[in-house]
Amino acid sequence: MLLKKSLESICLFLFILFADKCYATDLNLKAPQCILTSLNDAKTIELKQFEGKVVYVDFWASWCGPCATSFPFMNNLSRDLKAQGLEVIGVNLDENLEESKQFLEQQPANFIIASDPEQQCAKQFGLKAMPSSYLIDRKGLVRHVHIGFRPAEALEFRALAEKLLAEPIDNSK
Question: Percentage helix, strand, coil, to 5, in the chain?
């Protein structure tokens, strides 16, 4: 009887602990509808405004070494695939925006840079590490997640983006 009560208590604890943890890192769920601020002009950016496009969302910070390595890749991705419908969004998590601006002087971005200093969007995505990248399809579903950045894996992630871009567009809305 004591063992049964203990197991029930453990199960209840685990349920409560994980019941609200349905994050976008779970594939094929709707991406969170984050509201961000453009780092360049302080305009509001909402992820839902990109529905109908394939979106590559990358969370980064100025202190993150692999993040610096990923910027040339994201610049190339944006340059090569934007005309096909890809939107690259770098979401900065620095609390001090001056640090992010200094970073961008060293690693210029040719894609959208948004800030999330309160890390609300990062929390909605269930961010576990930096950098973390999310590929969102034209319907707004998270289709691929990648944690970290290694150049050898970047080509595979690019291929996944190209595959999403090649999927037929559903105009039945």
Answer: 40, 20, 35
pLDDT of residue 171: 62
- Residue 82 is predicted with a pLDDT of 97
Looking up tokens 């980064």, which residue turns up? 60
- Which residue type sits at 140? G
CA distances from 107 to 10, 40, 56, 92, 123 (A): 48, 15, 18, 13, 25
Q: Tell me the torsion sign for CA atoms 78, 72, 96, 56.
A: positive
Q: Which residue has the higher pLDDT, 27 or 80?
A: 80
pLDDT 10s digits, 60-117: 999 999 999 999 999 999 999 999 999 999 999 999 989 999 999 999 999 999 999 8
**DSSP per residue, 48-75:** GGGTTSEEEEEEE-TT-HHHHHHHHHHH
Q: Which has the closest alpha carbon to 149: 83, 70, 49?
A: 70
Set out the domains of the chain in order of their start, with CATH numbers: 2-166 (3.40.30.10)
Sequence-ordered list of residues with C-beta below 8 angstroms from that of 168, at least 6 positions apart, any chain? none
